[in-house]
Amino acid sequence: MNNMISNTSQTSKSWDKYWRGTNDTGAFTSGGVSHPAIRAFWIEFFNSAKQNYNNPNILDIASGNGAVIECALEAFEQIPNELYSLDVSEAAIKNIHSRYPKVKGIVSNANSVPKETGSFDIVTSQYGIEYAGHDAILEAARLLADSGSMVLLMHCDASSIHLECQQSFIAIERTQTSGFIQLAIEMFDAGFKSIKGADRKPYEQSSKQLAPAIMELESIMREYGSHVAGDSISRLYNDVGQIHQRIQHYESADVLAWLNRMEEELSAYAKRMSSMSESAINNSKFEQIKDDLTERGFVIETADKLYIPGEELPMAWVLIAKKHAQSL
């Protein structure tokens, strides 16, 4: 792909697999990346930025599905001078490039971006830079030109999204502990064999062994809702039930292969939820970020939590900082 710089590693595997499987740009599950309140924030910021920059160089860090890129293009009504999208996942960058071919892509860890100091007028990130840790924020500061603006929306602990990620992780962990998928594999294997004339006793026995795991999934969905973990548990539960009822209409190899894929996908999902939960920033860490930026000559213009009307829990940390001319 043209306009793409690559500098990635094995750490991107679970996210890369996710972005290979989706072009989603509108979900409020598993990250809240395009909630209307978030989109409104970025549109307002970029419209305001037009008063200071006619044709800025922009870098969006940890772009994911390209939600911030989309808002920048809408506000400026044309490709800015240079618009870069950075993500550790090559698949994410390819998805963005397929939608916006003129946007330049960088596949890289946010801790070490292969661009010169002061390359950008605006550096943004939405639910992403915090995954790479504190050093990634300092790296973003390095990349800003004098009088440039850094605008970060970051996960905060005790937020609605943090709670959602924690619940999803627990739900998947309980599903895995129940052994649901492996027990379903054993039941279907015995069931397909019985259809071909084998003894039905192994099938009946394996069906009984699956029953407690079925009850556990039902308990999970009652406790956290059927949409927990991005509907993955409810889909698994419903699909296994449907196949079981119409087993004669399915091929053994297809069903067993699907269940093995689901086991891999749930494991990858759990890793993503764990990383999202662990990346959430508490008050102390947020104050440290502000202090470090101030020491580097930044003026903190906005430092607060973002709330949605009618919601008790915050949605994100908002940090907007401007780099003074000739700052360190």
Protein model, in words:
This protein is elongated. The longest helix has 28 residues. 51% of the residues lie in helices and 17% in strands. Helix 2 crosses helix 3. It is of the alpha/beta class and 328 residues long. An eight-stranded mixed beta sheet has the order 1-4-3-2-5-6-8-7, with helices on both faces.
How are the SSEs placed, and which strands pair?
Blueprint: E1 4-7, H1 13-20, H2 36-49, E2 57-61, H3 67-76, E3 82-87, H4 90-99, E4 104-108, E5 120-126, H5 134-143, E6 144-154, H6 160-178, H7 180-195, H8 201-224, H9 232-245, H10 252-279, H11 283-295, E7 298-306, E8 316-323
Parallel strand pairs: 1-4, 2-3, 2-5, 3-4, 5-6
Antiparallel strand pairs: 6-8, 7-8
In short:
The chain is built from eleven helices and eight strands. By secondary structure, the chain is an alpha/beta fold. An eight-stranded mixed sheet has the order 1-4-3-2-5-6-8-7, sandwiched between helices.
| Continuous helix count | 11
Mean pLDDT score: 88
Q: What's the order of the H and E elements?
A: EHHEHEHEEHEHHHHHHEE
Shape call: elongated
Structural class: alpha/beta
What fraction of residues sit in β-strands?
15-25%
**Low-confidence segments, ≥5 residues, pLDDT <50?**
1-11, 22-32
